[in-house]
Amino acid sequence: MAHSQVWKQWRWVASIALAGTLFASQPHAGQVAARGVGATSLANDSWPYFGRDRNNTRFSPLTQVDLTNVSKLGTAWTTSLGQFQVLSESFPQVIGNTMFVTTNTDEIIALDAVTGKVKWHYASPVDFSLSTGVGGYGVSVNRGVAVMNGKAYVLTFDDKLQAITEDTGERLWQSQVANPHLGYYETMAPTAWNGLVFVGASGSQDGVRGFVAAYDANTGKQVWRFYTVPAPGTSWVPKGIHGGGGVYMPPTIDTSTGILYFGTGTPSPVLLGTERQGPNLYSDSIVAVKASTGKLLWAYQEVPHDQWSYGAASPVAIFDSTINGKKVHAVGEAGKDGHVYVLDAATGKLLFTPPAYVKVNHPTPTTKGVISCPGTIGGSPYSPIAFSPLTHAAYVGGIDLCFKITITKSAVGGERDFAGTRAPVGKAFGTLSAVDVNSGNFLWKVKMATPLVGGVSVTASHILFTSGQNGIFYAVDDRTGKIVWKANVGLATGSAPVIYSVNGTEYVAIALGGSAVTGAQHLGKLGASVMVMKLGGAPIKPLSSPGLQVAP
Amino acid sequence: MSSGTFGPRHRWYVSILIALVTVVSLSAGGLRGGSNAHAAGAPAAIKVVPGWPGGITVYKGRYRLTNSSDPSFAKSGMLTVFTRVVPHQPKPQMSGILSLYADSGTNVLYLSHFTTTGTKLSANVTLGIYTGPEIGKFVVTMHQGAELVANFVPVLGGSTVKIQFTRFSKNPHP
After folding, report:
1. Secondary structure of A191-211 in the HEC alphabet?
2. The domain containing residue A418 runs over which residues?
3. Could you give the angle at the alpha carbon of A222 between the alpha carbons of A217 and A226, nearest 5°?
4. CB < 8 Å to B97, chain A
5. Residues B80 and B21 in one domain
6. Angle, CA A289 vertex, CA A148 and CA A458 arms, to 5°
7. Does A3 reside within a domain?
8. What is the CA radius of gyration of chain B?
9. ipTM of this model?
């Protein structure tokens, strides 16, 4: 064979070899999928929004902690949120090496995400008693901040939206977003995007008229307001202090379409359906509005004419489903009524029959009382779902607890427009479920020894992290539901874990202390601390309550 | 009786004296060994009465914290006294929300189980929620017109904090 012919052959082989080398160097499909949802360098990966990404999926692309080494997680640091702080529904956010966490007294604490050292601490004189005018429903919690363009935004119990400097914790402005004398109170974290800050308000059980509003992020001036229910005395809303449809969790923005999604609460008078005819739109709904104007695009009502306090309270997540071979941009939410709803993000059309993640059986309430499952705290009182693009599953942590509901002719329970009494029946359990968003089928569903309140988070290494009311922190294989590791962290939980990395070290953080539901139903030990874990950290020691007696 | 002699009459007198001393001693010991209720100076049991004298009308409203003996506990604050419906209670119960602002941050304490024990007016103090961990007692030491002075007495020891309030509204929700 002539020299030129040999070289041509070797050149062909070399080309194939080079091509193969290039192909082999590309990340495999799983990693591509992970990168496709915003993966960044392992060295430094933040959790900059409520649900880590704009879609609220609570999916972390980090893989340093995986199923083979998760048992080596130990304590990196713990920080108490205050000597007299009890209850924590705060969902921490991490930007760079700063963690932002709120207290149930509406303070913001900026912590060094590596050491837990306090960088700055913001507190303002919030009036925590104004809502007592509607019966004394004065439990204050705060679910976090929104950070955008050097500002952190927080809502206070007395209905102020405040803008704080991200670096130093100094207040720039505040706006009164609702009137607390009417029964409104704030517990949610706001959402910030494109120069706007979006807020809702709590208080359905007090007869407030629910809304979502947008405020100018620089000036605090209101840009638009969308009411979720009609004004009292119009349409289905009775005259007087009635309405409902409160928005309890941060709205979710689809940055690709400019559509804002949120869930609305129960109509009022709560439980007493005879006083409000028809479906009671748009209570108990997933609602889509144009983010720039608040114009209604569509609404899907999960529970028409709600008589069980089954609001769509938990936040909406955005992801893609494949239905009958076609990709559908979708939104999903775990309703208080015990079902997972997955809808077409563009039209609000239901993509499949909502699966039940807890026991469901709710007869029409009567004056003699009925057993309703789930109870009025819901299968998910506000807990966000998580979505993994690797498994195409929506993960739900639930409360399996029935209530006896008895309706009355007028409010008796302390909340101004809650027309009935309710009491738990039997022992409370939890459920942890994985729902295939392409079919609505369960990939798996497990019973948990403890109610799960606050939500779940998942990672690209197939770990689902969550924490129970029994003070146990869980790592679960998100493909099977098998618990692969657990640790006694001591305190109940009212929020979901966050996973981040700084300088090449992956951290798993959880705000501990229990939720208002925990305290009201005596589900677990209360406190208020942040615990952060890392591989090779110190042995995890359970945190204790303030060490005080529990009032009978 | 001759001098220097301890005769029969003397022995009789001594016997009576010894008997008397014995009787008195036994009686005194019995008193000391008896129940406290029978001991001299022991107070009778004091009944704990729900609520404060005069009822909610006298105390309800909003108070501004005007002074605190411990600034780290509170430099300013607000107390709201009102009634709320409590599960399994036939009538609305006196309740309070105490917001405390200090350099270290904000704390919200919940007051419940208002009771009167003799002249002592007190309430339980809990954290987080009315049924949360009890951390102390709110004990009124002076109430005159719009002025109210109380001690926060921690349950597990620690210093008592004296706090003074002035009521600026009789309406819990102006």
Report:
1. EEECCEEEECCECHHHCCECE
2. 47-535
3. 115
4. 128-129, 132, 138
5. no
6. 55
7. no
8. 28
9. 0.83
**Angle, CA A469 vertex, CA A466 and CA A474 arms, to 5°:** 30
Asked, for residue A247, whether it belongs to a domain, the answer is yes
**CA dihedral defined by A103, A107, A108, A113, rounded to 10 degrees?**
-40
- Peptide bond before residue B8 is cis, with ω within 30 degrees of 0: no
Chosen from B80, B103, B112, B129 to mutate, greatest number of chain A CBs within 10 A? B129
Do B22 and B71 belong to one domain?
Answer: no
> Closest residue of A to B108, CA-based?
A105
**Cα A316 to Cα A386: distance, rounded to the nearest angstrom:** 10
Going across the sheet that includes A529-535, the strands are A73-80, A529-535, A505-512, A498-502
More confident: A45 or A20:
A45
Report the candidate in A67, A418, A392, A347 with the shortest Cα–Cα distance to residue B84: A418
Q: What is the number of domains present in chain B?
A: 2
Q: What is the distance, to the nearest Å, from the Cα of residue A95 to the centroid of all Cα atoms in its chain?
A: 18
Say yes or no: B53 and B133 in one domain: yes
In a domain, A18, yes or no: no
Total domain count, chain A: 1
Could you tell me if B54 and B95 lie in one domain? yes
Provide the CATH number for the domain around residue A371: 2.140.10.10
Residue to mutate among B108, B114, B125, with most A CBs inside 10 A, is: B108
Asked if residues A264 and A210 have their Cβ atoms less than 8 Å apart, the reply is yes
Identity of the residue in B85, B86, B108 whose CB atom sits nearest the CB atom of A128? B108
Q: What is the pLDDT of residues A77-120, one digit of tens each?
A: 999 998 889 899 999 999 999 999 999 999 999 999 999 999 99
Domain containing B155 equals 48-169
- Residues B100 and B84: their CA atoms lie apart, in Å, by 21
Asked whether residue B75 carries a pLDDT value surpassing 60, the answer given is yes
User: What's the pLDDT tens digit per position in A201-213?
Assistant: 999 988 999 999 9
B157/A contact by beta carbon, under 8 A: no
Residue A271 forms part of a structural domain: yes
Residue in the structure block whose two tokens are 């429903």: A137
